[in-house]
Design brief:
By secondary structure, the protein is α/β, with parallel strands linked by helices. Helix content is 39%, strand content 26%. The protein has a single domain, classed as 3-Layer(aba) Sandwich (Rossmann fold), CATH 3.40.50.10610. It contains 5 helices and 5 strands. The protein has a 5-stranded mixed sheet with strand order 2-1-3-4-5, covered by helices on one side. Helix 2 packs parallel to helix 4. The chain starts with a helix and ends in a 6-residue tail after the last strand.
Length: 200
């Protein structure tokens, strides 16, 4: 009888453990803000890119360029370097900036060097295989007028189960004609994180 009770108790305990370990999935809106670890996340990427691109498009360089050239400037995103202590998906951040730039309708956006390789390969294939009326000729690319470059850096201040995470995002818009920096933008984020899982 005792053995049967022990087995029954063991089965009940296993059931409780398995239930506790079960994965639970909850759907969220992509715009919902939810910080779990305190690290850089999708909300940081979206808000920083929107704020900084709104700022660059509100500055005088844009009006000066369109006034002189009578056309919208072409912009390309160069290297955005991750100098922080953590892994940050830079492609997501760059894509967020590209989206805001393109949707502004104030600039023309030029494909990155990696994207251009694929496009040029396709254009070369068209030269050999596409009909004259559908072929896109070489040498017709739109050159960029400005390049957006920058860095993401961090400073950590940790004591026991408490931590302050400081992020600094620096972006520069550089004229490709003469290397002038026509805009310098900076955004700072500070997060106070507490809990047993806090780590550098």
């Amino acid at each position: 009888m005792i053995t049967v009770l022990k087995r029954l108790g063991l089965l009940l305990m296993m059931g409780v453990v398995l239930t506790a370990c079960a994965t639970k999935v909850e759907r969220m809106s992509p715009d919902e803000v939810k910080d779990i670890s305190g690290r850089w996340n999708d909300t940081d990427s979206r808000l920083v890119s929107e704020e900084m691109i709104d700022d660059v498009l509100a500055r005088t360089w844009l009006g000066e360029f369109t006034g002189q050239r009578k056309r919208d400037p072409a912009v390309i995103v160069g290297e955005i370097r991750n100098l922080s202590h953590e892994h940050i998906n830079m492609q997501t951040f760059v894509s967020d900036m590209e989206r805001v730039l393109i949707n502004s309708g104030k600039v023309v956006f030029v494909a990155s060097s990696e994207e251009r390789k694929d496009v040029r390969q396709e254009r070369g294939d068209q030269d050999l295989n596409a009909s004259d009326d559908t072929r896109n000729a070489m040498g017709q690319e739109r050159g960029a007028d400005f390049m957006l470059k920058g860095t993401i850096s961090t400073i950590l201040d940790t004591e026991g189960k408490k931590q302050v995470r400081f992020y600094q995002i620096d972006l520069n818009l550089i004229s490709l004609a003469d290397n002038r920096k026509v805009w310098v933008g900076q955004k700072k984020i500070k997060k106070y994180v507490t809990g047993p899982s806090v780590r550098p």
